[in-house]
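Figure 2 data, in text form.
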Amino acid sequence: MARESDFNRKKLQNTKIRRDRAKNIRKQKKANEQKRSQDAQKNEMNVEEVAVLDKKGRRELRKKQIKLEKKERLRKFREERQNEINEEQ
């Protein structure tokens, strides 16, 4: 008898935990959707484009941005060096 009541109590606790997790996931999805719509308004893009950006990940976008900045710095450095060489001649 005691084992059955412990089992039932544990079962109810697990059910409550699952229900709470599902509820939190729904809240998180709703919050993400609101954030996407705000980003879309701010950047004048549609919500689907912002969703793609979120899927891609902001980290990857930042990596690409850093890569482009490095290329730009290298290009400027090469131009300056070439100009110095041309001035010497």
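Caption note: The CA atoms of residues 66 and 72 lie 10 Å apart.
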